[in-house]
Amino acid sequence: MNKENLYSIASALVAPHKGILAADQSVKTMDKQLQAIGVTPDAEVRRQYRQLLMTTEGLEDYVTGVILYDSTIRNKTDDGVPFADILVSKGIVPIIKVDRSTTPHINFPGEVITQGLDNLADHLAEYYDMGARATKWRAVFNIGENIPSKQNIKVDTVALALYAAMAQNAGLVPIVEPEVIYSGSHDLKRAEQVTTQVLQALFSELVEQKVDLKGVILKSSMVLAGSTNENQSTPEEVAEATIRTFKNSVPEEVPGIVFLSGGQTPKQATSNLNAIAKLEKSEGNLPWQFAFSFSRALEEPAQRVWQGKLENIPAAQAILLERLRLNCLADQGVYEPNMETDQ
Q: Which of 138, 221, 227, 325 has its CA 20 to 30 A from that of 268?
């Protein structure tokens, strides 16, 4: 493991005023998204959609890295160029999702654990050879009555730490994603409590596994009331709760924190990101670089325009670039809702 290389890649991933495109939907998730826009899914349609993303001219102006799914990193363009090579040619870091999704946590109703540690070292070596220089593992924490349990948090944070250690050993920057699920009726206070608990447990396990925190990126949920709570959080409340949570949970050595959109609408995610950036500026002495790492909040508008049609690709790419531009402005705290157009 070359620590300086890890630090350099980690720093590049959270370069100011850019973000990470999360194009790592599983086959099941991607098929649902295609069906939602009236497109019959198959492997070729999925490849065409991912090609639309990777070949967008000017993507590198807004994006430092793209997270890929296993089948995506193995895909090539119509001209036979591997997607990872397209990204590298643009100066974008290929990132590979390596977890194998979730399974029910036996004896713990309503909770899940993430799979994928088996043979992970071999997979990481293969992905490195394919051009990946960073990787991501997602754990899922639902909020409900008496959940997440201490046992569930323990199992998933240990797995995240073991993954991170293996990733660094393979020369890949680990992105650790402990997603606290937005869906639910919980209030803002409960969301902050759970997110703090999860992050504190995660970093304790990372230290236990001797993971170099200077070569790790945290991908975190924003802290906000659940999607069905009657008191929806304002952007200012989200910013205050999120930054307070990080101050209580995330070591200063971590170079950057990137946000997932987690089911928020595109405009909601951008507005909340903007409020966080504004508060970050006013704080003035936070040790982490913030950025976005959205999937749905970036891609959904482009998917609606594309609709699986070749002639719609330029318009879909233009919408993708516009959403990226707006989020880069939000990352600077200079986004205004009136900048939005109907999409």
A: 138
For residue 212, give the nearest of 150, 268, 165, 277 by alpha carbon: 165
User: For residue range 11-27, what is the model confidence (pLDDT) as tens digits?
Assistant: 999 999 999 999 999 99
Full DSSP string of 207-255: HHTT--GGG-EEEE------TT-SSPPPHHHHHHHHHHHHHTT--TT--
Choose the catalytic residue: 179, 219, 280, 299. Answer: 219
Q: Among residues 177, 179, 192, 300, which one is catalytic? A: 177
- Euclidean distance between CA atoms 167 and 117, whole angstroms: 11
Number of domains the chain contains: 1
Task: Tell me the per-residue pLDDT of 150-163, one tens digit each, with 9 for 90 and over.
Answer: 999 999 999 999 99
- Is 219 noted as a catalytic residue in this protein? yes
Task: Write the CATH number for 132.
Answer: 3.20.20.70
Task: Give the number of other CB atoms < 10 A from CB of residue 137.
Answer: 27
Collapse the DSSP code of 280 into the 3-class scheme (helix H, G, I; strand E, B; otherwise coil) and give the result: helix
- State which residues form the domain around 91: 3-339
